[in-house]
Amino acid sequence: MTGFDVTGVSKSQCVCEPEEFESESTQSQLVEDHEAHVLVAEWRLHKFQSPIELKHEESISHDHFEPLDFHGHWDKLGEATFENTGKTAVIRFQRDELPYLRGGPLHEDTYVFEQLHFHWSDDDNSGCEHIFEGQAFSMEAHAVHYNNKYASFQEAQDKPDGLAVVGFFLEATDNADNPCFKKLTAAVQHIIKVNTLTSVAADCLTWIREEAQCKGYYTYQGSLTTEPYLESVTWILYPTPIHVSRQQVAHFRELKSTPCEKVKIVNNVRPLQTPPSHKKLNILYARSHRKSFD
Ligand SMILES: [Zn+2]
Question: Tens digit of pLDDT for each residue in 139-182?
């Protein structure tokens, strides 16, 4: 399966969508902003276990977020490493200033990049954690950030506003390798053994750039999908998958999970979680951005 047309918005329109508020008066804008603020304040109180299935018709379109800004994620600065932890493959940066996220559903806070890791399974049709409109993908990448009002990821991870995780789907196709993803698939072949680490190009996240600049993302309040499953995550999920080749995904299945090297990491996906019936599932869809008046 390729694109998604549930929103009636194609990928190219999504990036270039015109602002919708230019003709509105400041007064009506303030009322709308207040209502939107109340909605978001309430929304932040409802946390769920993750992952969940995302359905567009069950989400609330929201036009009042500031633009979600990625700072430095694909810059060629400092150094980066790629590590086989025995459970996943993890990218970390060593820089004077780590990449950070601002805007969108994150209020006035700044969230600092901690690491990016991957989920995959033993086939190309089930390696993601979140499901979108009944569709699964080959892999899911999670860019984990922590709120910089806390001193570290460890301190932030159990706070309600502690973490922001940006999720990207990867879909294996019969087409050629994704050239931007090649830096990682070359490096992953050097970390086959558990607890090994290699250096990787500092600009190894260029493959997320196009999706990350798109306005159409889903956001909800959820949890870590690995132990201890803390409900401290603002999830930001881009529904359009990034295409890679089948071989590029297959490289990840070669990673060993044990020192004896008999066991490979072939499924690190948490099953879908069902929200309790008394809790209303609150997924917002950031359709467009609020016009900035300052
Ligand atoms: Zn994850």
Answer: 999 999 999 999 999 999 999 999 999 999 999 999 999 999 99
**Mean pLDDT score of the chain:** 87
Calculate how far, in angstroms, residue 26's C-alpha sits from the geometric centre of ligand 1.
41
Segment 272-285 mean pLDDT: 84
CA of 39 to the centre of ligand 1 (A): 27
Give domain limits for the chain. 28-286
∠ Cα 267 273 278 (to 5°): 175
28-286 domain in CATH 3.30.1780.10?
no
Element (H, E) at 43: helix 26-43
- Cβ burial of 122 (10 Å; 0-12, 13-18, 19+) is exposed
Strand partners, 139: 120, 170
Q: How far does residue 146's CA lie from ligand 1's centre (Å)?
A: 14
Dist. CA 205 → ligand 1 center (Å):
16
Half-sphere exposure (Cβ direction) of 292: Cα atoms closer than 13 Å: 6
pLDDT band at 214 (very low <50, low <70, confident <90, very high): confident
Residue given tokens 């009042």 in the structure block:
64
Q: Which residues hold their Cβ within 5 A of ligand 1, which is an ion?
A: 142
Q: Ligand 1 mean position to 73 CA, how many Å?
A: 18
Q: Give the pLDDT score at 279.
A: 73
CA of 145 to the centre of ligand 1 (A): 12
